[in-house]
Amino acid sequence: MLGQTLGRVDDTELVREAQRGNHAAFEELVRHYDQAVLRLALHLTGSEQDAQDIYQEAFLKAYKSVGNFRFECSFYTWIYRIVTNLCLDHLRKRQVRKEEAPVAVDPGGEEYDLLDRVADGRAAANPERDLMRREIGGRINRALDRLTPRERMVFELKHYQGLKLRTVGEMLNTTEETAKNTLFRATQKLRAALGDIR
Amino acid sequence: MKCEWVRANLLLYMYDELADDARFELEQHLERCAACARERAATREFKETMSAALPVAEPAPNLLAASRMRLQEALETAERPGWWHHLAFDLGHLFSRTRFSPALASVIFIAGVAAGIGSTYKLVSQERGNVAAVAGDGTQPMESSIAGIRAITQQPGSNKVEIKYDTVSTQSTEGSLNDARIQQLLLYAARNNYNSGVRLDSVDLLTQNPDNMQTREALIYALRYDTNPGVRLKAIDGLRAYVKQDVRVRDAMLEALLNDGNLGVRTEALHLLEPVSADSSVRQALLRLAREDKNQFIRSRSRMVLAQLPEID
Q1: Which has fewest Cβ within 10 Å: A24, B162, B191, B266?
Q2: CA distances from B306 to B249, B266, B275 (A)
Q3: A 38-67 residues with CB below 8 A of B?
């Protein structure tokens, strides 16, 4: 964390250098944040390919518009705002695709996306437990998919990425209060959908 | 009512978003209320289930490396910002380079805005019933040049209207950094301009002459009140040589260290105050930061500086 903090201290000078066209400075800035960006994109999309696409688009956008950065927020917030918007676009597109995706019905009567079920070829010590874990994971994924893109994004940033609600609000260009209310709605929906899971 | 409040805030509590006093009250309530305690357990279980089912993993090194390579290739062919971009944002760098040529006259071009003189123009109906605005001198004023309307008078029994308005005209001046008029405009721009880029450029130029008391005051003002952290950092840069000898500069640095919203500004202020950490006000501030600052870097750095100080009896 100390290293991360020191990284943010250097950002101001790196940003100014990048604004002057210093390629190496921009690459250094990328290295400060790219692991966290990729982690977020990977967890949200569940796909390495999609995560790489978001990563690429986010940093290319940042490169092209770093000249417009006026230090009115931290560079961290600024880059995350770009990534968050790209993730929201991805979620919106995915929602449209899901409505057209092939579905089946499991023994419990629940619909599931055929794309969710991937056979695990490894020899497992406890295949029944693994199956149950995959089914719970599948149900949780489906419950997450039923959230609106913004609810999904707020839940991802708060629950999985551990950011403060104030930061989440800044990244989504809204207030902390709105982020809070969105989190409440998301968790209510998730708990309603997953109430019987133990 | 209390249970209602607790249920409404339980989620924030579980996500560590409650203020300390609210958290304390809530925990006190949970010790006494079995129903709310059950709700806490259910919320905790929900959180744990969500985390266990979809753990957040660090990206594999191969994936990160591949992403970086792909980005590097794309950056090499990406459209770079145009020459105008360098001109607009490199002014600070340009002027800092001229700092090392004091013998040469620094030529600055400042576009200023000044209130213009009043003019009149008449509204005249045209054949098709449209109204055209015609200036007293026959030219049509641009809307962007109008600063305000002073008076509107309609001549009785006529369709003629007289309007008095003020105009804004852009002016420019040039001269060396030592020129009093240039200094005056720079001081004005540092405090009053709505454009943070212009304020940044002004403060940058003012840092070349912080011996001047007015300039030093302007830099202190910028450090205390400017809304842009880049400007505040630039002001710190200009004041660094005066932290030891000028107690007003030292106080402004202390305020920045304790209260600035930007971590970069706070860190830079801490760095500049280290040589004067024997000052009792600085020492007191460091003690407080070492004990209670929310930022781990500030806390640990403050402790390190204090550890290097001799004990005072």
Answers
A1: A24
A2: 21, 17, 11
A3: 38-39, 42-43, 48, 51-52, 55-56, 59-60, 63-64, 66-67
